Amino acid sequence: AQDSCAHRCGELLGTCSCQVTCQSLGICCPDYKEFCLQISPYSGSLMGGKDFLIDNIALNATSVLTCRFKQQIITSGYVAKDGKAHCISPLLYETGFIPFEVSTDDGLTFPYSGTWLSVHHSKVSDGEKCTLVNETKWQYYGTPNTGGNLTLTWTHQTLAATHINIEVWGYHEIGDSYSENWMAEWKYLYTLAREIPNTGKFSFLPVPAEGNYNTWDFGILRIIPSNYFNGQSNVPSIWSSEHALAWHLEKDFRNDPNAWATAKCIEWDRKEELLPNFKGEIIDCPCTLAQARADTGRFHTDYGCDIEKGSVCTYHPGAVHCVRGIQASPQYGAGQQCCYDSTGTQILTHDSTGGSTPDRGHDWGSPPFLKPPRIPGFSHWLYDVISFYYCCLWSDNCHFYMKRRPSSDCRTYRPPRAASAFGDPHFLTFDGLNFTFNGLGEYMLVESDLTSLRVQGRTQQAHFPNGTGAQGTGLSAVAMQENNSDVIEVRYSEDFNLEVLLNQRVLNFSEQSWMDLKGLFLYSTPDQNITVMFSSGSGVEIRGSGGFLTLTVLLPEKFMNHTQGLFGVMNGNPEDDYTFKNKTIMSVHASPQQVFEFGANWAIENGTSLFTYDTEFLLNSFFYGEKHNASFLPVFSPYEDPADPLVEEMVSLCDSDPFCRFDVLTTRSLQVGSSTRLSHKNHKLLVEHLEPGMSLLLVISCGWLDHPTNGTKNGTNYLLGSTINFICNQGYKLTGSQERICQASGAWSGDTPQC
């Protein structure tokens, strides 16, 4: 009998396959498409209530559909008039891919399965939420000069209902901080408006909420069809953005917002005093804006202050760009933020309210999520945002906030090391050695015993513009994993589109460009630059250029002396970068033929391969074929023929770049040469940004200096070579140093001035 995929999606069975690769290989079980679900949309807010269509199951309208997420959270599904099945996504306290199953026999068996992508509430498109028109007015309502009607708008077609209810929900965390019984809860509070027409607009004059609801100061609105009962969970919903509930707060707030908020700010400050200090375990900031934008494995643009979107930095006046530390700190799940001014210098809260503030709760949450302080977005709001309203926005007590959330400087920051491969593959190692290796096969680019990081590359033959094979190769796929993380592969498909695979399944970025995955974050820009950020802080950047992949790997300093592979032994010494698997070392002055042998030595094996072999071509070429194709011999040193018309164009394009010249001659394509030249230039720029001056000279910071009591200081730059001057107020005399310079030792010259 033929095997069935019921309850077996993702498995390889005796007679056929229920794995995602079965379709392109043509080996699926006959009922694969019925039981292994395709859904659209595939993602939605972690708040839930989103209706999604299941493409596969066709049913009669009498079937009772039950959807079950994570084997425990049950939501009801339904069958539409067209016979298509639908589920409603649940409220989740986590982000990432969530497994779900479907039952058509009223919950007895769940043979159908798929995955739902749960997304951070502020990464969901605005069209999916209802809009608080003039959101600032909602969040400042009752403070001086803020009053009148509030308006809520929404896309009324989202809910198939003639009448709707608008509910207010509040978020709180109960139990003891940082203990086992600390729990997060979204709680239905009351219904703001019931059975109103679903027109897409509602205006009202807010009054303080009844009972003790008016003490909830952080929450969200939910719109549901009015045939559901109040607060019913996991029903079709439209949520607003989460916000400060100034508009419904108690009369005391409206009578004297400043006094009310001041009391809250002081109460918050007292609570903070009793909580553990998280600042000692968060990563220090990069010293310069260039470093912050280059260290993509550990820092990512803060959407609230982005130089590429015009630097609208509401909370950080004077900043042009901020970044957030990607990984939450290990014990407390805390987050780092770093802001920079137009000169590229870090802004510190000691000098300006525009300075960056670290977060007790990382804005993106952190695995395993589910419990405070790791709830995406909302833990952060509770500890770091609503308190900012108390102290800085609703009252004039910002010094309390800045005392508890001072900027970190960059004294202990160490830039990562970068290695790159591009073109007709040229390799630039972490220690700065460069070479060309034109093997055909699958190779270990870098592996580390520190975190079991593995990055593997596959090369395929280059072609001349007329389509015939050239005597060179280029990177066509890169696969990677760290510890037991998800496996990511980036490859050119056979029709030359860039594809990203997650555990062998091709990903679709049409709804989400950022994904929280197991052991890593994944980000794709609109023009398909792919960044993988592993939990160790190592980063991998890949983009397609000129028909080949360009790859950069960034490793933090802790990987020193812990790498091997084609990118060499990262230790600051290029002399040992040609280290073979058996630890023998070849001279850096080796011939191209010897370098070819070094490369061949790093071919991988099927047992350790991370690649997906989902076509006949890949199976025959790389799985059943040799991992290093010994019969393919490339050109080692292409000949420059003065009579060749291409040589003149090559010289004007490439100038003195040897990689560019090599690629034009081996592929006869100026386009390939041009993208190689750009990749080479980008790598040099990256290294220069990460480690200014010499390749190994670190950016040195001497740390913040205060002004003397009864005096002032000039200057807010604390990096090597900077000068700070001190002046006493009238009637005071200066002792100590009037001028201090940041020295190469990391110490300030002179003595502390006093007036």
From TrEMBL:
Signal peptide: none annotated. SMART domains: AMOP, CCP, SO, VWD. It is found in: Membrane. GO terms for cellular component: membrane. Residues 700-755 form the Sushi domain. Keywords: Disulfide bond, Membrane, Sushi, Transmembrane, Transmembrane helix. CDD domains: CCP. Residues 1-40 form the SMB domain. The keyword Membrane applies. Disulfide bonds join 728-755. The keyword Disulfide bond applies. PROSITE patterns: AMOP, SMB_1, SMB_2, SUSHI, VWFD. InterPro entries: AMOP_dom (IPR005533), C8-3_MUC4 (IPR056619), Epithelial_Barrier/Signaling (IPR051495), Ig-like_fold (IPR013783), Somatomedin_B-like_dom_sf (IPR036024), Somatomedin_B_dom (IPR001212), Sushi/SCR/CCP_sf (IPR035976), Sushi_SCR_CCP_dom (IPR000436). Residues 417-610 form the VWFD domain. Residues 257-405 form the AMOP domain. This is SUSD2 protein.
